[in-house]
Design a protein that fits this description.
Layout (H helix, E strand, L loop, with lengths): L1 E8 L4 E10 L2 E7 L6 E5 L1 E7 L14 H5 L5 H8 L2 H17 L2 E8 L2 H12 L7 E4 L3 H6 L2 E4 L8 H9 L3 E6 L7 H6 L4 E4 L5 H10 L3 E3 L1 H7 L6 H7 L2 E3 L2 E2 L7 H11 L4 H7 L2 H7 L14 E5 L11 H7 L6 E5 L1
Parallel strand pairs: 1-4, 5-6, 5-13, 6-7, 7-8, 8-9, 9-10, 10-11, 11-12
Antiparallel strand pairs: 1-2, 2-3, 4-14, 14-15
Helix pairs in contact: 3-4, 12-14
Bound molecules: zinc ion.
Zinc ion binds next to strand 5.
Amino acid sequence: MIVEGTVLRGRALEPVEGRVVVEDGRITAVEEADVDSDDIVLPAFVNAHTHIGDSIAKEAGAGLSLDELVAPPDGLKHRLLREASREEKIEAMRRSLRFMESSGTATCVEFREGGVEGVELIREATAGLDIDPVVLGRETVDAMRDADGFGASGARDGDFDRARNATREEGKLFGIHAGERDSHDIDPALDLAPDFLVHVVHPEPVHLDRIEDGGVPVVVCPRSNLVTGVGVPPMRELADRTTVALGTDNVMLNSPSMFREMEFAAKLGDVSAREVLQMATVNGADVAGLDYGCVEPGREAKLLVLDGDSDNLAGARDVVRAVVRRAGVDDVKDVLL
Ligand SMILES: [Zn+2]
């Protein structure tokens, strides 16, 4: 298979005119050439933080605080989840997964509520789709064993030492929310030596030092932080210290569109368009240990093709800026997963 157009090549996402050669699902070459195509070829997105279980509760709870919305066990989200049937939950997740897939997302790193059963539900919801979520179980060690790792709510919600150790023994991924509403839970989260932190809106200098020294990646979710009113993550400071990836967080609060997340990140944060597109692709792949997220030989060929001649994108002077700050679902021409 050959995919032609302006290719955003390698980690640097350098725009080159040419073609991507794919054999047996892997990129074997990225060739510069004159091609007759206005398409833009880039890595499919890695949405590095989601909760799609609350797809049953889109736009519920206007005006509620962060705790009232999502804090376990009795936040609005958890009450609505308890009321929903198994079939309703599966169907709602399935539709969110399908939307992510059609909007160019190869995977999402899902913090899955509901223990072992929650992990089973998302597996059922994903059946037959091409998107391949990284599922992090919550609440029990058994959920982690059935999943790709453990996704902890936050250090103030409980003692995660046992789950952390069990996850390490299995060689799986351990992520934890930290620093969402204040800085108090960042040190205890870092004490667990997590594979990544989520949010980090309120780090103090000592936390930034620890994040850098420990090489701990951070997943930021700026739109979620706006909706819950906790502030804006310091994307510049974080990106200067560590790997920063991008996630859309709860479907209840935001559409799981990486185009929308990228636009907000680029316009809210002091980070370049190139950095934001890295956050949405290769950095997320690095965090989750995935073999895609980058258009270079040897990688799995999970690609997004945009119509660079759409009414929205035609005439753009800077391809990377246009993809990050302007492109949307309507510009998607093909998603190759
Ligand atoms: Zn979250």
